[in-house]
Amino acid sequence: MELVFIPTPIMGHIVSAVELAKHLINGGRDDEAIITTVTILILQKRSFDAEISHYIQSQTTTAAKDSRHPSSLKFESLTLPPPATDAPATGVPSVDAFKPQVRDWVSGKNLRPSGRLTFVVDFFCTAMVDVGNDFGIPTYVLFTSGAATLGVLIFSLQTIQSLSDHPNNPTPFIKIPTYRNPFPAKCLPPPLLNKDSFQTFLGIAERIRGAKGVLVNTFLELESHAVNALNDDPRAPPIYPIGPLLNLEAAAAGGETGQILEFLDGFQEQGSVLFLCFGSMARFGAEDEEQVKEIATALERNGQRFLWAFRSAEDDGGQGRRLLPDGFLERTEKVGKVVNGWVPQVAILAHPAVGGFISHCGWNSTLESLWFGKPIGTWPIGAEQEANAFLLVKEIGAGVEIKLAAKKVVSDGTDELVSKIVPAAEIQRGIAQLMDPLNPVRQKAKELGEKSRRALTAEGGSSYTSLRRFVQDAFHHQQLVSIDSYPCPILPQFFE
C-alpha cells in the first residue's frame, strides 16, 4: 500500500505531514509489511520561501540515508503554471486549481494490478477528496489542529452562520459538543465569521464528513472529551488521535542560537525564565508601539527573567527595537534578552531554565510547550488561536489567560479585527500567575508533558494504538487502483 500525502503548502502543515509519515514508516513490523511507500506531494505555485525549500531538502537527504527504509519516504512537486493567486478569504493557498495535476500524477503512476493507493489530505486540501473519489482511492483527512476545533467545523457551522447573518445581535456563547463549557462566540476563528470564507469552510466540512476518517494532531489524554464527542456522533467520520506530531529535531542553529542558549545556561534556578514568542507570522510595527511598551513595562515591573523573540515588521536589522521604551534594554540586561528574528523554539522550550511560555497559541506551539511541560500564557492573534487559548485556560487548565480574544466587528463579507491593548497591569498579573511555582497550571502542564510522550510509545500508547488502527482500517478500505478499470475521470467540468 502506498500512502500519498497532500499537505497545504505552508510550513507548519508540511512539517505535520512529514512527522506523521515518519511515524508510519517507523511503525511496527505489521505496518512495514502493509506500507511500502509514503509520497508527499508538494503543491507549488511559485518558488517556495527559503525555509520550506531547505526543510524539504533536508528531509529528502535524511530519508535517503535511512538504512532501514532507504526509499520509503519520497517528495514530489506539482507546479501550477501562472497565473496563480491565493484565496484571500481564507488566507491559505487555493488548491482546487491543482486537481488536474494530481489527476495526471495518479494516471501516470501506471500501477500494477496489485498497486494500491490511499490519500491523506490536509484539511485545507479536501478538494482532493474529489480526485480520490474519481479514481476509487480511499481518502483520509489530516487535521493539523485539535479535536475540539474539528468539532467546530463538523457540528456548529449552521449556528455560526446565524451569527454572521445577525452581526448586531450576537450570541455571547454557543454550545459546541467538543467543549465541556459554553464556547464564547468571540473566540470563534475569524474566517468563520466572514461570509465569503464561510462558504469555503462549509465545503471543507462537507468533504471531511465524506472522508474515510480524520487523523487529528492531538492525543486522547489531552482532549478526551472532544475525541469522545466526535466518536459518539454519527455526523463525524472515524477519528484517529495520532499526535502530537512534532519536529523535535528542528534546527537549533543559526541566528543568535549560541547566545540564547548561553543566556539560559546562566540561570541555575529551573523554571525561572519566561519565554515570549508570538509566532512566525507575527511582526511588531509602528501601530503596535503602545502594546510593545505595555509588555516591556510589565516585564520590568515584575523583575521577571525573560527571553523575548521580538520580530519587527520591517527587515530593519533590529531597528524595530526602537518601539521599546527608552533604556529598557539597558535596565533589564541582567535578567532579560530581546532577540530580533528567528529563535530555536524547541531548544528554548526544552531548556530547564524556562518555566513559562507566552504564546500566540498556534497549535504546533501549544503541543511543543506541553510536550516539555511548560504552561502557556495565552496571547492569540488569529486563525483558530483564540479557540486554542480558550481550550488551554477553560477546558484543560494548562494555561493562564493574558489575552483570550480580539474584538471582532463582523460586517457583510468582511471581518475587521480590532486589537484591544492589554495594559501592563493585566500582563503583570498574568505573568505572576504563570510563573508562580504553586499555580496548578504548572503541574497540569508537567503531567500533560509526560502523557504526551507516553501516547506515542509502542507499549500501549494511545496515539500509537490509534495510528495502528488507522493503518489496518486503511488497508481494509483499500480498493484496487487500476487506471484502465476506471472511466476516464478527466472531464471538461474539472477544468472550469
From TrEMBL:
Keywords: Glycosyltransferase, Transferase. It is an enzyme of class 2 (transferase). GO terms for molecular function: UDP-glucosyltransferase activity. CDD domains: GT1_Gtf-like. SUPFAM superfamilies: UDP-Glycosyltransferase/glycogen phosphorylase. Its EC number is 2.4.1.-. It holds the Pfam family UDPGT. Belongs to the UDP-glycosyltransferase family. PANTHER family: GLYCOSYLTRANSFERASE, UDP-GLYCOSYLTRANSFERASES DOMAIN-CONTAINING PROTEIN. This is Glycosyltransferase. It comes from Cuscuta epithymum.
